[in-house]
Specification:
This protein has 283 residues and is α/β, with parallel strands linked by helices. 32% of the residues lie in helices and 15% in strands. The strands form two sheets. The protein has an eight-stranded parallel β-sheet, covered by helices on one side. A two-stranded antiparallel ribbon has the order 9-10. Helix 7 links the parallel strand 5 and strand 6. The longest helix is centred in the C-terminal third of the chain and has 17 residues. The mean pLDDT is 92.
Length: 283
Amino acid sequence: MNNNRKTYILSLDSQCNQRCLICMKKMAIDNKRPLTEESVAKEIKSAKKRGFGKIDFYGGEPLTYPFLAKSIKLANGLSLQCFLATNATKFSSRNFARAFLADIKIKEMRTTLHASSPALHDRITRVRGSFKKTIRGIRNILDLKRTNISVNVVINSLNYTGLDKMASFILGLGVKNITFSGLVLEGELTRHPGLLVDLALIQPHLNRAMTKCLASGAGAKIIKLPVCILNQKLRRPLNCINEINHNFNKLAACPDCRYNGFCPGVPQYQMKAFGTPSFLDYV
């Protein structure tokens, strides 16, 4: 199999400097030690040998991992495209951002913004001041022009009514790509089931936000959500990330739907807590 276009996910098991209510990995990471420098190097070399062309660095928060820059430099030397998932708070220091990005190449960074309100974002991360640091980090990354950055919005019961406003805020920062993500009932979220929300309630707010992004010329995608949550004109493979996940189910009629090939299905929590979404259709 040719993996050159595929991405190798490298989870560093590093600790995180936030305590997000919706984190899917926190419980697992809390019980692990970060990978050693040698074991990370071994994984990177193995990914290259197996034909992967891309490598995605995950945490916890990867920037708390002491050997991250050296690991990325190793991957650069093996001609692997590098991606980084980060909350961007450490990049709030312009000196740190400049030094970190000086001699490594990262194709794209992804960060998460939970709200356009500092109070709500900090409530979800459970770290006071995290909103200001993430925003400053995004601005520093954009100003330095050393890599691309996209913003992920994880939709939950606290922020879904503000998706349109969030889209305007993020676009106003100069970000050109936004991903709207559904929830997966794993990790820390299992302790906070009240953050789950009926997809039917999300639908109108999500469609307005997606439409605003695309009208501005920015990229907009959904992940961990069924394709049919989008209006017909938005239902394109380019706007949907089909991430296979055992917490999603295809319903009986899904195989006959034209979007089945790039749709993950319906999250299990939706069916258990709220039932079949009222918008569900099969075209």
